[in-house]
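Researcher: Batch entry, complex prediction.
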Amino acid sequence: MTRTRAEQREATRRTLVAVGRRLFSDKGYAAVGLAEIVREAGVTKGALYHHFDGKAALFRAVLEEVQQEVATRVAAAADAEGDPWDQLKAGCAAFVRAAADPEVQRIMLVDGPAVLGWNEWRAIDEAASARHLAEALTAFAETGTIMPGPVAPLTRLLSGAMNEAVLWLARPESGPDDLDATLAALSRLLEGLRVRT
Amino acid sequence: MTRTRAEQREATRRTLVAVGRRLFSDKGYAAVGLAEIVREAGVTKGALYHHFDGKAALFRAVLEEVQQEVATRVAAAADAEGDPWDQLKAGCAAFVRAAADPEVQRIMLVDGPAVLGWNEWRAIDEAASARHLAEALTAFAETGTIMPGPVAPLTRLLSGAMNEAVLWLARPESGPDDLDATLAALSRLLEGLRVRT
DNA sequence: CTTTTCGCATACCATCGGTATGCGAAGGTA
DNA sequence: TACCTTCGCATACCGATGGTATGCGAAAAG
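Model: Structure tokens for the complex:
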């Protein structure tokens, strides 16, 4: 079995990202050594530094992959709804459920901002998820469904609310009721934004 | 000037916390070495490890100090208001302003969860700030000012919303208008929770 | 068949957080 | 005052870590 160089290159890179994702989510960024990553990936540090600029760059690749997956799930849930407001609520609920995956949490919400810096983290989050939220809110502001005004701050408020809620749901003593209560509270928060008819 | 041992001990400890706070907020937890901390504090690693269990323990002491200061400012702003609902809004606004301090942000909102783990971070946050928010919301739920239901999820949603908003306000291209817009959006979010009369 | 490219391994280094031990002055006791 | 104990901190040292410089061998190019 001889592989072309392009195939081999891609395979090695994907393995590194996959191994990094698993280790980063299990133990946290700081507790994972490059030696451990390359050992489990069956390569050496030379391979890692050939593909990435360093440990943080590998983490960035992992984070982008995670963000993409979450965004895909959110978009799918939103598209399943017809009414725009239902799309918003479904998308938010889907985000909470998707980010409930413990493999996602630590990477996307805890280590992400600390490792890459909040601004770079936000840029990735914006490109993947928050952009859709901002677009939806913009549309609602234009149609008068919610009160007019700048949507960027509101987007961040809601995004932050969901991020924190997801982490709260992941605490050890959390039960299934908490998910329902959180989704209900989030729904109330969103409904509160609608102009009163 | 001969100092008692208790005085000397406290002085060294406070210096370490103060230096750690400045360096952690300037460069971030991971980019600060113990050698740099003890050098600027005028002591050695022996002193640091005599007072703290390690780098993370020093960071924890710094975080607790920062949290206490923010909580004090929030409580003062809330107490200045008479009406309970005004107290809530004033407290939230004061939190956003207090956490706008760049020295506070990185420690309290970015590195805090990553270094100590989210659960431990939340425990500190809960003891200092989030508890007051939860108590206020509980009172409003009992008096019927807001809709009944579990307040814990709502507390986390609002807390997370404010945390993220503060970080958004600290981004490089942020202007003074953004603070007003954020406070306005936050106010709308809170008002939306009130039962409609 | 020769040459170049390049994906990756090997060997090495500076620095890091952490630990074990020693010392000297403050505090207690007579 | 003389002695002993306590303890706050310094010194010296260690393994492990992220990062780099260089070498090699097979695939691609000619």
